[in-house]
Amino acid sequence: MNYQIRRISVSDRDNLIKLFINSFNWKPSPDYINRKYDTALLGPVNTGFIAYSDEGNPAAYYGVFAVKLNIDGNIIQAAQSGDTVTHTEHRGKGLFIELAKHTYALCKQEGIDIVFGFPNKNSYPGFIKKLNWIHIHDIDVFSIKVQTLPIAKLVKKFPFFQNFYLNIIKLFLSKKTFYPDSFSSVINQGLSGVCRDEKYLKYRESKDKFFLNKYAKSWVKFDGALIIGDILNENTKSLESHIKWLKRVAFFTGCNKIMFCSSPGTILHNQFSKYAKVINQMPAGIMPVSDDVNVTDKIFFTSADFDNY
């Protein structure tokens, strides 16, 4: 079968939703797709390719999302490897690898110097063996159980109630929220990581995320659980008090789990490991696009850096 491969555009987004439905049994809203794919604040837009079958049906998509990296104090244009979607009728035909090669060639044209990401077990072999990614480390996934009614899980299963649920949370947390100009424990520690400046925070803004200030400062998301994107804390005592408070927040909002992901080697990772157990790990990888970029494995991430956060 021959495929028509072309750069993704706004006109392809309805077909992209069809691919999500077929591949993941999940229908993202047009608003979600439009917000996620509009990376104009952070760099190039529509950096990806979609394949169509002979009949004109969407067969596969791969793309990356523009983002800035702060590496040793230098801001460089980067991109996060994003959605990898192949229709069930078109798997095993090399479309993912072909689309990825087209995408990385486009990255070079658009001035993107490096691509990073967190491949799952299905795409990992392709990234490492066929696309020359470098596996830099494994990110630890922490979990804290909270004894409460699993309301958040029910809301995720029945999204009709989401707006009501989030409005209640907004009211409940109203006196503890704020909005920063930047937010990164990694950068504050002097390490290399995603540049979460005002533009990045604006791009990631959504009604299910909140910046909280109580003993310490955190960026959290309510998505079936209480997911911590990152925490800024002055010391171990302030973190301990903040986590105890977040447990109370989770209890009253019906989140029976608090989740957090972090690269090892950061102060926050070392502190957080005292209060939660690691339940899983996921690979972090990079692929230099520009010949002018020095390859480094010293890039650190937290939950707030994932494309689905």
Fold topology:
Blueprint: E1 4-7, H1 13-24, H2 30-37, E2 47-52, E3 58-71, E4 74-86, H3 95-109, E5 114-117, H4 124-130, E6 134-145, H5 151-157, H6 162-172, H7 185-188, E7 192-194, H8 198-204, E8 209-214, E9 216-222, E10 226-232, H9 236-252, E11 257-262, H10 267-272, E12 277-288, E13 299-300
Parallel strand pairs: 4-5, 7-13, 10-11
Antiparallel strand pairs: 1-2, 2-3, 3-4, 3-7, 5-12, 6-11, 6-12, 8-9, 9-10
Strand content: 25-35%
CATH topology of the largest domain: Aminopeptidase
Low-confidence stretches: none
**DSSP E strands, number:** 13
Write the H/E string, N to C: EHHEEEHEHEHHHEHEEEHEHEE
CATH architectural grouping of the largest domain: 3-Layer(aba) Sandwich
The chain-level mean pLDDT equals 95
Q: How helical, in percent, are the residues? A: 25-40%
CATH class of the largest domain: Alpha Beta
What is the radius of gyration computed over CA atoms, rounded to a whole number of angstroms?
20 Å
Count of discrete alpha- or pi-helical segments spanning 4 or more residues: 10
Q: What class would the helix/strand composition place it in? A: alpha+beta
Total number of distinct structural domains? 2
Inertia-based shape: globular
- Spatial separation of the terminal alpha carbons: 36 Å
Biggest sheet character: 13 strands, mixed
